[in-house]
Amino acid sequence: MLNDSKLETYLLERHTPETAKIYLRDIRIYLDYMTEERAEKAGYKDILQYVDYLRKKHKNPRTVNRMLYGAKSWHNWLLHTGRREDHPCRFLRLRDAKGQDIQLQDLFSSTELEQLMERKERYESVRIRNQVLVSLLIYQGLRLKETEQVRLQDVDLEAGTVHTRGMAKTLPRTLKMKPKQIMLFYRYIHEIRPKTISENTDRLILNIRGKAIKADDINYLVETFRDLFPDRKLNAQTIRQSVIANLLKEGKDLRVVQVFAGHKNPSSTERYRQTGLEELKAAVQKHHPLG
């Protein structure tokens, strides 16, 4: 297994090289503990014993959780190759691994997020609608409810902007669209949407029944992409977190990212960085010296 180039290729097709390298290492640890023969037949109780073993070796719950993902990756590989028909720990979640801090290492790169735009659909109308929706998540970083509530009049194709009205936790803001979104939105608004609509609504995005899309519909759509990243937590929240973290990683000004995200408090944006809050306060003071 350790020299199996097909496993490495499988991981690289689904993860960044850095993540694939980590998973390969954690798979090696898992198989050293379990043995490959036993791992192929492992059940839920066997995985729990492995988790107990990891807890005794590592005090940080997040380290244990990450290494559990290595085991999950191995069993995904067994499913992929037909060596097993079930997954003993797909839905195993470690409660003590959850925390308030955003785990930047678990988020998605811009390249990974782009994969959500590339999926083929059986019907062209569904492909265009899904790309419009997904683009609002991965380019504008909208929250679920913000995406649901975008209206036709909020999209200005001439200016290349989309307006979001904000929510309890976010401020209203007008965001630039990517050039590739302009034609995409034009086709959806003028060609696809008029043929799909089944009720009188000004909401931009419609569900498959032609009615205004709801947050649950968006959640369901995002869940259908999980096969792209079977060992990671893909949802509208982690997509938004990834967009914000990527902007900061690219060196965008903290205040600019705060406005982009609609954060009311500087501390909300600061959670996506590893530097001190003073840098953000200095940036805010630079742009708004009178407070």
Automatic annotation (TrEMBL):
The keyword Nuclease does not apply. It comes from Nitritalea halalkaliphila LW7. It comes from the Bacteria. This is Phage integrase. Gene3D superfamilies: 1.10.150.130, Intergrase catalytic core (1.10.443.10). Residues 2-79 form the Core-binding (CB) domain. InterPro entries: CB, DNA_brk_join_enz, Integrase-like_cat_sf, Integrase_catalytic, Integrase_recombinase_N, Integrase_SAM-like_N, Tyrosine_recombinase_XerCD. Keywords: DNA integration, DNA recombination, DNA-binding. One of its GO terms (molecular function) is DNA binding. Residues 103-285 form the Tyr recombinase domain. It holds the Pfam family Phage_integrase. One of its GO terms (biological process) is DNA recombination.
